[in-house]
Amino acid sequence: MAFSAKDVKELRDRTGLGMMECKKALTEAGGDIEAAIEELRKASGMKAAKKASRTAADGVVAVKVAADNSYAVAVEVNSETDFVARDEGFLAFVDSVAVKAFESKATDVAALMAGELESAREALVQKIGENITVRRLVLVEGGVVDAYVHSNAKIAAIVELEGGNAETAKDIAMHVTAVNPQVVSKEDMPEDVVAKEKEIILAQPDMASKPADIAEKMVVGRINKFLAENSLVEQPFVKNPDLKVGQYAKEAGAVVKSFVRIEVGEGIEVEQVDFAAEVAAQLKG
Fold this sequence. Notes:
single chain, three-stranded antiparallel β-sheet, about 50% helix, elongated
C-alpha cells in the first residue's frame, strides 16, 4: 500500500517522531498508519529499555500542595540533560506524574508508575531520545504543610508545622532550599554523624598539642557549632538573620515538626565519558 506526504505528516503529528522514522515505519507497515503506530509502540518499549542503562541525573522537581495545607507531594523526574528538562513535553509528563501522586497520596514510585504513566514515559523516551526516570516521591502530611520550589525547579522543600500558618511554612521551606539543613533540631542529629565529626575534629592539626582537658572543651565547642550550623531551628533565618528559624516559627505560633528537601540528581554518580576515546573506539570497531 502506497502512502503520501500527508500520511507521513499525520504519523508525525500522532507520534512526535522524526520524518525519516515515520517514513520507514509506514514503508514497513505497507502504508497502514494504525499498523505503523502499533509497531512503533512495540519498538518504543525496546528503545526505552536500551536507553534505561544511561544515567539520568538532570531533570526537575515538582510539588503539589493541598488547598487546605494538610499535605503536599513532591516528585523528582530525571532526564539526561538540562535541555530535555526544559522541554514542554517532558514538563507536561512531570506534571501528570505529580498530579496523580497528589490525587492518590502515593508513596511508592513503582506502584504510581504502573499502567498509563509508564506507557507515557516510554513514549516520551521514544520521542525525545533520552532516558527519563521517576526517581523519588515524597508525601508529607499532618499539621500545617507548605512548600517552596526554587525558580529553576532543581530544588524544592516541604515543611510541616504544628500550629502557625501556610505563609510561615512556605517561608521556612524557602530557607531549607537555600541553606540545606541536615535535621530539624540538634537532638535529631544521628549519633554516628556526631561521632564522625568528633573524629574529624580530633584529627585536626591544632588539637595535637593541646592538653586533654583543653582538647575536650574544644571538641565540645566545635561539635556544638556543627550542630547549630546544620540544625534548621538553630540557623539564622534567611529573610531575617537576626532571628533563628526556631524563633521565627515561635513568633508565628508554630513549631517545626519536619521538613524534606529534594535537589535534582543528588547522590547520583555520573560516569565521566571520554568522548574522544569513545569515537576512536567506534572507528576501530
